[in-house]
Amino acid sequence: MSMKGRFPIRRTLQYLGQGDVVFKDSVKVMTVNYNTHGELGEGARKFVFFNIPQIQYKNPWVQIMMFKNMTPTPFLRFYLDSGEQVLVDVETKSNKEIMEHIKKILGKSEKVCVASGHHTKEWLHWEDAEGMVPPTFSLKKESTGT
Known about the structure:
4-stranded mixed sheet, single chain, alpha+beta, 5 helices
């Protein structure tokens, strides 16, 4: 692995495996709306930079989309398989507070993770999971922007 670029530690398996948010199976899509400037969005920027790679690693079945500089205030939106949406305001929160909050409201409990074989500290790497294919689903027409 090349250790070039900005903060290459973020690309190591050890760092990626340290994330502790494993979403419930009902979470299908996560969108992150944030701005590159402004004091109130600092936590959201750090969340995108440091925590999104860990979330992607631990939740390979969840589609994650970033929307940069398209909103006055930063927020997260989760799309569930039931068609419901969960909106999370992250304007004044630090990246750690954001992680704790989404783990509390949409994360699997430690007991469920262990029972289903998803250890939050030791996650099976995607390439090692023979035959695993992420589920596919269709978004409602109003969710696609077409």
